[in-house]
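Our example pasted here:


***
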Amino acid sequence: MSKAISISVAGENSLIVYFGDSPSAAIATQIAQTVAYLKTVLGDLLVDLVPSYASLLVIYQPLQTDHYYITSVIRSAIREPIVKIGNEPDQDQTQQQGNSVSLPVYYSTESGPDLQSLADRAKLSVKEVIAIHQQTEYRVYAIGFAPGFAYLGEVDERIASPRLATPRQKVPRGAVAIADRQTAVYPAQSPGGWNLIGLCPQRMFDPNAEPSMPVQVGDRVRFTAISRENFISLGGELQGDT
């Protein structure tokens, strides 16, 4: 087991696995592989698995097993993946890990009120910002603060932008946003301080669907520009629409 990985007791029926100090494509891949392994091996012994940027919380049934057994299974899971922590996966390995997901985006100053100001700060045109945002394949590093809110990285440093000094009280569902070197799609209307550059008609969380989210930790995401008309035809809603 890599020295970068540690397992600690997090509660009477939970353990937390730390894969490193900061998120990376390699860590996102190994977390996704570990989740899949634990689901297969532990089955009903699991209560929940909660992946984050560089860690995984494992919650188990305390009356059916103990942390000694769960730890042994986690160690086996860590040895199983082909990607070693501390090294970036090569291109072939990355392509084999996680699902590839394409998300449509209506990029415009109408749908993305911060698009022009972000472009101005970056000394780029709006078209250049849109092109750069689309050309990167992002990894899902974590899901939170709300169901379906997927933290995606890494944003090209040319369009990386700090959070707003004053967060908005209402960010619309589907807002595509950038904060520092991360990007995300807001799954529901909520407060938020990220820079809004467009709108995505894809629902990022639907409790009545199976699966309830189109992406999971470790997946690979690309954004594809669509027209205003396509956005509306796909069920997208613009502020002021009824």
Observations:
- The longest helix spans residues 25-42.
